[in-house]
């Protein structure tokens, strides 16, 4: 597909007929057929075009997702990760992602077409609250335990050098660069009259901790690395029937996947959610304790036992993520105005609170 090609219904119908993609759905039966009239574009960006299609079989219509990755002038690492997750990673992670029916690369250029099971994200379908963590954490623990530590060794060849690894030279250098930039933007923020009043009470503490970086709390790494999703929030967590007591959870949009400390996903799922939703602030400690205990218990069921107190590991991982990347993004957005730095006040306070709990000052 050339960069000037337009992805629309006509283009998809024409390409599907030409490539005989209807044969990719033999699992539905020999009489399965496309229902082209109901095609719907769910999202279109410079990176990809996502469509909802339907397959008709035995007078029933089954929704299917078609995700078309667009050829970029320069492939970004996360784009390569997601493509390879659908093509290669599914052999290990299929239980945790929508069923991938077919992938076809080098379509009309360098783009990848992926046909997969349609599962609705949680976002917008439930009044999401911390009780829902109980429905998600068991599946998350099962995902993590499948590739943690030595269990990953048997799959290393499959993931090759395309899956980012936390302890790789590339990611170490990235953390060094981010550490320097965080210090830079911290000082730049102090020059901004609108930001100085917010940052000043935390400035000395934060600068001192950053100068100890760029890596923090080696215990978090030593206690368990595995393939993590990397971007867990309600838009990337899906389940078909949210009215049922238990949800059959699947995770979508895997471009943030990497081999990294398992606790990072829990920090995104719980910590970042609660940082945005301050109405749960007075219950944050109880919610966190309950969820960390559930995660630890679920990991134990799969043969994974943590030698360090799980709550302490979670706290370390949360502060580690803030100091290694989260604070940089918030300061950058606040100084440059690229985005609203909604989490900056929460992150500054979290550094103070967790720093004290972990006896860093």
Question: How would you portray this structure in words?
Answer:
This protein is of the alpha+beta class and 361 residues long. It folds into 2 domains: 9-117, Phosphorylase Kinase, domain 1 (2-Layer Sandwich), CATH 3.30.200; 130-357, Aminoglycoside 3'-phosphotransferase, Chain: A, domain 2 (Alpha-Beta Complex). Helix content is 45%, strand content 15%. It has helices spanning 9-19, 77-93, 133-146, 156-159, 169-190, 193-199, 203-210, 218-222, 263-276, 284-301, 310-336, 344-357; strands at residues 33-34, 40-44, 48-57, 60-69, 100-107, 111-117, 225-228, 237-238, 250-251, 258-261. Strands 1, 2, 3, 4, 5 and 6 form a 6-stranded antiparallel beta sheet that branches. Strands 7-10 form a two-stranded antiparallel sheet. The chain has a two-stranded antiparallel sheet with strand order 8-9. Strand 5 (100-107) and strand 6 form a beta hairpin. The N and C termini lie far apart (56 Å). The model has no long low-confidence stretch (mean pLDDT 89).
